[in-house]
Design brief:
Elements: H1 2-28, E1 73-83, E2 87-96, E3 102-110, E4 116-119, H2 123-126, E5 131-134, E6 139-140, E7 144-145, H3 146-150, E8 155-158, E9 163-170, E10 180-184, E11 188-193
Antiparallel strand pairs: 1-2, 2-3, 3-9, 4-8, 5-6, 5-10, 7-9, 10-11
Length: 195
């Protein structure tokens, strides 16, 4: 009788462990084998990440909780937000911080023969003036910007040929592989961004 009880307990333990392994593989998928040499990260959606289409949707029946947060690091973008023929604003790069925040780095460049006057809003309105728009329409507003942190409510000018490095820090980075846009004040929007 005691031998039979031990066989039943061992059988239950083996069955539970087997179900856990199958469940883990079903939710997370098998580990990815490819590594991107430039970033040390897995293929475009990250190691072990589910495939994501251009609209940011996973495979049928997949739960959003399985989407991967992009790894920390800087990603070059170099896309124009604005070019009025005299001055430019460029989204230079996107940086995912170790804490999972997204920092957008922008460069204002004066190409004019005279000064380019810029005005930073007060902190309250400033933090509502720019946003990320995710594939599902959700908007994420910055928690800090160059203007709110360094020049709140100030008006200043860039001299001809001068550059200004600006930035906006958002509380969270969009999931890896999903498409999003950045609207920067009333200056312009950059579409089709991914991490």
């Amino acid at each position: 009788m005691r031998k039979r009880l031990i066989e039943i307990v061992v059988g239950v333990i083996v069955a539970v462990l087997g179900a856990m392994v199958v469940g883990w593989l079903g939710l997370n998928g098998p580990p990815a084998s490819g590594q991107d040499a430039s970033t040390g990260q897995g293929a475009s959606t990250g190691q072990g990440a589910p495939p994501v289409d251009a609209a940011g949707e996973g495979a049928a029946g997949e739960r959003p909780a399985t989407r991967r947060t992009p790894g920390p690091g800087s990603r070059p973008v170099n896309r124009l937000v604005m070019d009025d023929g005299v001055n430019t604003v460029t989204l230079a790069r996107l940086e995912v911080t170790r804490s999972g925040r997204l920092k957008a780095h922008l460069v204002y460049q004066s190409h004019s023969t005279g000064p380019w006057t810029l005005t930073c809003p007060a902190p309250g309105p400033d933090l509502q003036s720019s946003h990320l728009k995710l594939h599902d329409g959700q908007r994420i507003y910055p928690v800090s910007t160059f203007c709110s942190a360094e020049r709140p409510g100030e008006t200043f000018a860039l001299r001809p040929g001068e550059k200004l490095n600006s930035w906006g820090e958002f509380p969270t980075a969009p999931p890896a592989g999903t498409v999003f846009s950045l609207t920067w004040y009333n200056i312009g929007t950059v579409e089709g961004l991914t991490l």
